[in-house]
Design goal:
By secondary structure, the chain is mostly helical. It folds into two domains: 113 residues; 106 residues, Homeodomain-like (Arc Repressor Mutant, subunit A, Orthogonal Bundle), CATH 1.10.10.60. 77% of the residues lie in helices and 0% in strands. The chain has 13 helices and no strands. Helix 4 packs parallel to helix 6. It is flat, with a radius of gyration of 19 Å.
Length: 225
């Protein structure tokens, strides 16, 4: 029962959002999200330091991918990641682990170089930012392909390769992230939230949100309000 309860209260959006903050070099936001994520995983893992370190390693891997998408040099990022994992395995206190994780994420942000992205990386990054900004009136992948004068099939393959997930899955993730924010930061009713994120009805919002998080919007708002 405790595990089920913790899962219901877990902020599922935090880790992918943290990786995005790393990708775009948003240091202050990354530090804020990291502090919240670390507090949650410490609470959920209890006093088991090994389990805490395993979950920190998962966080590091997600942030590594964000830095790579942000134009960081692959060879250097990988070498530093392996060294950071080696050091993490030898730490014997939670404060030390926490500080190591914070230094690692800061170091990744130092490595982010938007100018070092390839053309397709830049295009995919711009699409993801546009999806986030236009959820109320979403575009299809075909529309993005037409705007960029690319074939839809090629853009679909490249988007999945670079973003790590298909276009539709990324849109669902970003929509769910926006819904969480609206649930926690506004008193908006579900039909209004659905309209703001480009869904046809409150019932579709409830179904999509539960499929992504395991809870209904109402349950999420009550648990985190």
């Amino acid at each position: 029962m405790r595990i089920r309860s913790e899962a219901r209260h877990y902020r599922w959006e935090l880790l992918p959002r943290l990786a995005t903050e790393v990708e775009f070099g948003r240091r202050a936001a990354a530090r804020r999200d990291l502090r919240e994520l670390v507090a949650i995983l410490a609470r959920q893992s209890g006093p088991d330091l090994t389990l805490r370190k395993m979950r920190c390693a998962q966080t590091m891997s997600a942030c590594l991918r964000g830095a790579r998408l942000g134009g960081g040099p692959s060879a250097a990022l990988l070498a530093e990641h392996i060294e950071a994992l080696r050091k993490l395995s030898g730490l014997r206190s939670w404060p030390g682990v926490r500080r190591a994780l914070e230094r690692y994420v800061d170091g990744l942000i130092d490595r982010v170089r938007p100018a070092g992205r390839g053309r397709m990386q830049r295009l995919v990054a711009s699409i993801r930012e546009d999806v986030r900004a236009t959820l109320h009136e979403p575009k299809t992948l075909a529309q993005y392909a037409a705007e960029l004068e690319l074939s839809e099939g090629h853009l679909s393959r490249e988007f999945g390769r670079i973003a790590g997930r298909p276009f539709r899955e990324e849109m669902r993730r970003l929509r769910c992230e926006a819904v969480r924010k609206l649930l926690l930061e506004t008193p908006a009713k579900l039909p209004e939230i659905a309209r703001r994120v480009g869904l046809r009805s409150a019932s579709q919002l409830i179904a999509d949100f539960k499929a992504q998080t395991g809870v209904t919007p109402g349950q999420y708002r009550r648990s985190n309000g």
